[in-house]
Every structure is written in C-alpha cells, then in structure tokens.
Predict the structure.
Amino acid sequence: STEEHGKKRDLEIHAMKIESKVSSRFAHTVVISQVLNRANVSKEAFFEIELPKTAFITNFSMTLDGVTHVGVVKEKEVAQKQYQQAVSRGQTAGLVKVSGRKMEKFKVSVNIGPNKKVIFELTYEELLKRHLGAYEMQIRVKPQQLVNHFQIDVHIFEPQGIAFLNVDANFLTNNLTSIVKKTLTGTKAHVSFKPTLEQQRKCPDCHETILDGDFIIKYDVNRDLSAGSVQVVNGYFVHHFAPANLARIPKNVIFVIDHSGSMSGTKMRQTNEALVKILGDMDTKDHFGIIIFDDNIDTWKDTIFQATLENVFEAKKFVKTISARGGTNINDAMVKAVRLLDKAYQDKQLPERSVSMIILLTDGHPNSGESNPTRIQQNVKNVADGKYNVYCLGFGYDVNYNFLEIMALENNGVARRIYEDSDAPLQLQGFYDEVANPLLLDIEFQYPENAISESTQANFKHLFAGSEIVVAGKIVDNSLDYLRADVIAKTANENLTLQAEVKISGAENITQQQQYIFGDFTERLWAYLTIQQLLEKRISAETDEKKNLTDRILELSLKYSFVTPLTSMVVTKPEENKNDTFVADKPSEDEKVARPSFPGHSMVDSD
Amino acid sequence: PHFIISINDRSDAICFNIDGKPGAILNVVTDPSTDFVVNGELIGEKKIEKNVKMNTYFGKFGIVNNQMDMKVEVSTKMITVFHGEDKIIFPWSSTASLTKESFSISIAKEKNLTLTMGDDATFVIVLHRVWKNHPLHRDFLGFYTLDSHRLSNRTHGLLGQFYREVNAEIYNIRPGLDQGKPDATMIVKGHKLRVTRGYQKDYRLDPKRGTNIPCWFVHYNGKGFIDGIPTDYVVTSLF
C-alpha cells in the first residue's frame, strides 16, 4: 500500500489499468482506475486522464457502492440546459479542457464514504494517423502516487503486417526500460508495462512515483506499391492506401513570411532559423520563392527559382536578414504569391507535373490593406482558384486561427498551430517535412457504384510521403462476393491504376478469428472518419450546407456515442443527498490557446 | 530457355533451345530504328545434379524504350520502372497499370505483365511461380510477342530476327530416333537442317499446365535457324 510521510494515504489508487486494442489503426482505449478511501471520513477522489485531441470519448462510468453511473452522450444544447441548473448552483465548468498541444484533460471527482471504493472507467477511440512514416499512440501516464496494480496493455492487429514497433516512455530510466515487454509476430503486436510498487518508486524508501510522462508507441505496417489494404467486417469496409516505392513529384513552394512588428524577437529568430534549415532540405528539382510582408510586400528577387545549390545559398543569405517591423498585410502577400506562381506557369518555368503550394506563416491578425478576414479568404480563394494548396501556420497566442483554418481548407490545405516555445523551429520544419515529398496527384478511389454507399472522401489532390489515405464505407449489396477497389492517380511521369479485390466472406472470417478485434471496428472507424471529415467541411461551409452537415454529424455522434464538438457527455455524480450533473465537452481547436503559466498564476489546463 | 517461332504464315512452328550459363544475359530483341531493346538474364536450377544437363530459364528481363526514356526491369520478385532518374517498383502481388502517353504496363497480380507501346508492339511476360520449397526448381519468366508489326526491318535478337515472316520448307518426313517423333528436313535461311517433331509449351492462357504447341525442333541451340551462334547474343548488361 502507498504511504505518505510515514502514514497511510487516505485515498489510495488501488489499481490502474490502461488497455488499448488497435485494429487497422483504429484504437479503442479503456482506462480503469480503482480508488479506495481508507479514511474514516468521506473524501473527494479525483479521476484525471489526458487523452489525445484526435480521440472521441465514447463512454464513462463511475461505480460506487456497487452502483454504476454511466455518462450519457447528448446533443450539446440539451446537455447545456441540463448543465445550466448545475451552473446556477455555482458548480465549476465542464470536465474536459485543452491540455497542451496534443492532449485534452478529462477530470472528474466524487465523494466516497469511509472505507469505500470507486471505480472510474473511461473509453475513447481514435484513428491513428500516419505521420512521417509511422502511426503514433500516446498514453499520458500520471497517477501521482504509487499504484498497487498498474498496467498498460496495448494489443495491435494490422493485417498488412507490422514493419516495426518502437516503445518509448520518457519517465523510464535506462535500467527500467526492460519493464516494457514488447512482442511482435507478423500481424500482431503486444506491448505490456506492469511496474511493481518498487519499480514505480523514484528512489528507494521514498513514495514519489516515476510514472509521470508519455508512453509512446510508434509503428508502421508493411507496404509496397499496390492498391493497399481493404478490409470488410460486418458490412463496412475500410481501405488504407499509402503505397511505397514511388518517385517523388517536384514541388513549387512560395513561402509567405510575416515579419510584422509582433514577430520581433524570438519568433523572428526562430522563423529565420527554421527557414534556413527548410531551404537546405529542398530537393534540387523543386522550385521556390519567398515573399515577406509587414504592411508592405517584398519578394525575394521577384520570381521563382529552382532549388539549386547556388539559389538556395543566396536565399539563405536573404532569410537571415529578415527583421520584424510594421503592420500585417496578409491579403496582398497571399495574392502576390498566387500571381508569382501563375506567372511562373505562364512562362513555363515549372515542371508540367508538379505540386504548387503556398506556405503562409503569420502570428497575428491582418491589420493593414484588406483587413476583413472574410474578404481576404474570398480574395485568396478567387485568385488561387483551386490551383495551389494553401498551408497556414499560425504562430503564437494572438493569431486568428479560425481565419487561417478556413483560408487553408478552402484551398486544399491545412492550418497548423506553431506553439511559441523553444522548439518552434522544429515544429515549422516538422510541418514542412509532411508536405515536402508529394508522391501522387489527383487520387481517385473507385468502388462498384451500386454495391457501396456513404463512402467517406474518395478523391484527394495529393498523397505525401509518410502519410496515408483512408476511405471507408458501407456495403449495400448483400450478394456481393468480392469488393473491388480501383485507385487511379498520377505519378511524377505516368498515370497509375492500382486494383485490389477482397473476398467478402473470406475477409470477414479472417478478422472474426482475430482475438484482438472488437467486432464492429470497421463500422466505428467509418463513423469516426465520416464525423472528422464533416467537421472539417463544416468549418468553411455556407449556412445551408452547414446546417445539413451539423445535423449529420450530430446524428452519427449520438448513434455511435462519440463526444464530438457537437455533443456532450452528461455525467451524473452520485453524492450523499443529491445528484450533481457535469458535462464532458470536446474543446475546439479555434479556442484561444492558453498562454503558458508563470509562477504566481494558477492555470490548471495549460502546459 | 526454349523458343517457339511461328513459320509459314503461322501455319506451323519451329522450336529450339538455347543453353546458356546462369547469369548470362541474352539479347532477345533489338530494334535500332525505334531504339527498343529487350534483354533476358538466365537463371539455373537451385542445385545441379551430377551428370544431368542443366536447364536454364529466363529469371529477369530488361526492356528499354530510349525514345520514351523508359526502362523496365522485370524479375520474378518485382517489376521496376525507370523513367529518367525516377524509379517505381511494383511487386508481383499487385494488380496495376502504368501509362505514359502510348506506353503502358499492366500487371495482373501473380500472373503476367503486358507491355504495350502504342500500336507499335505488345509483349507479355508470364510469371511462373514454383513451390518455394521445391528442392530444384525456382520461379522463372516467359516472354511472348503478341504484336511487333511496327518494329522496323532492322529488328534483331534471338526473337527479334524472326519478327519478319519466316519461310521454311519442311520435307522428307521420316521416322526419327525416338518413337512418335518423326524427323524431317527443313530448308530455312539457305540452310538444310534435320528437325524433329515435338511439342513445346505456351503458358499464356494456362500458366500452370501450358498449352502444347506442336513444332519442328531444331537441334544444337537452333544452329542454322538462328543467325550466328548463341554467344553472338550475349550482352554485358540488362540495359
């Protein structure tokens, strides 16, 4: 048992178990914590778990005195109404908060009587995304005291075969890494971590735990140049596509760099540092241009250059001289970037088959030239006209992220936050690495038209090295014996068609035999992916479409019990004489990023 | 490897073997006019039994279309397409097609590969999979010309020299040394040759059992039927 300053702790985490089952990248994680109150008075027990932002909570329960109280997923408005009553009684805010860059914190507490125990159980699901050639599963471990029975169990099943599996936990010293057991046999992997009480201790005879940090599992599957893996279970299919052995397609990048006054100091220095490194990493077949803006727009040498050694050397020299001053004219800088690419195409300066992109880095709100965000978005959309991908990197705390996100999504790109921290240059390079190597263009997934329905997105502009495309859908033809999937795309020089055919009954049998699988995973994966894609589409949708999207997201979230930005989980806490209601909401990315906390300020939900 | 050549307006066929050493690369087709080349590398059995003549097969083909800056290497393991400095690798386990203007490659998973160059020429490479634990045999490849009418008259190579119509006269059919395998005399390319009636397999339609093609077998590595001798066709590299 755990002790505190020589005496028994009143509240003891008797057991904590984190069990995850991953099937074809879809992870289903259950966290169970058992807390005992050894005191002879009631105590408040806390259950605090950090889960990935990309995950959806699907279930939560508290078992007290043998009675289980289950959280119920409801439409957000309905939940809020219920919650308002609690708020009017002076209760605190919701149960989930943003916690740092990648995690959300779920926190609940309950009063437990003397010598009683409570069991908390939280379930969440996520589709692991392939990022720079690996799937990453992050489990944040923070029990805050020694735990009698602590256990992490992760079972992975990947029909394509697992190429490698790495486990890393930053709280494990070298001599303790052997506690992590890792087995890998073809399509299955098992990671197990069960430290004893002694192994959890920070030092002999002390009561502090070493378990404080991230337990990270990284793996990839075997791949070749084929149509990928298609799986069919219980009438739903999922198709994973990330072929290997393709030649990269040259790219043309215009870097649009904000050097307004607010960038001065660390941000400008970090930007310069990252740009120098990024330029150095460019392939010699690529082309690039640099635009810097404050309230004026300046173009480095007013054209696009091939990334030859000489040009890159010159550009690096220029980048090192960029300093911060003035206002923020995003509109004219972006329009100028599009014009630069247009002209280069007109002059036949760029390879016929290449990917053209604009990478905007800014830390603030537009306040010079056109400063209305909606009009800037319209202008950029109109001039780019779907020809060029726009990636927006929002640097720091004051950025209007929502504005950047819409601008990126409307132009086949994505937005990303760059957190103001010492590793900001690495974050910038990390993002660049994701889009540095295009492999395929205009990828189209085709399935028999009358045999499937409600497919997730099946057309993609690009596939980048290290990433993966996932398509899922329903099979509506009950007599279908084989599901055929065709992938049509363009490589650097040729047109490519790949074909896969999967025997439906055979596929079902194989997967049903796997002990690792939770039977309906393809259906839940389909629902998860559909919701994620609709949420993204909703960001830049017009009013009417937005309503339809909202209705559909809500319908699916409620049906599959996902806590998404449109639903909440209502948790009723059993207390002695009353039942208090709390809600678990999913925080959205457009919420302001909390500034880091400083001594003297108490900030709970930031890192 | 064995070769089957249609003669006399496809009414009959001639066949011959080429015995070579494993590792040797033979020129199969060369067309200097279109800058098109097919070379094949020989492989042997997994082990050589004493006093038994060693059979060789094609284990790898290199196809070069210099006009399109395309090269294709087909082995029993994979298919590699080179375009300039770029390289794309397909496993035989995928069903895929790759097209560049009129040039196309279609792979039928674990079966065959069809290479088409517009309406110039079409070739098929058949994959012969052998049980991987077989003590002797290993996977090998077969090469078939479906269409070559647009290749030039200058086309040569072990197969290429026969893309022009071959006229052969067969006469004096008589009992041969083996019962049921008559001998005959054939006049072709100005040579008078003794040939023996036999069968060779065409694996295009049935890659497991093949289809028997009756043909007149030319002895001694096709001596007199092919131009020169087999070593004339040995080249130093696949491309």
Summary: Chain B has a mean pLDDT of 91. Chain B touches chain A through 17 residues (CB under 8 Å). Helices of chain B lie at 219-222.
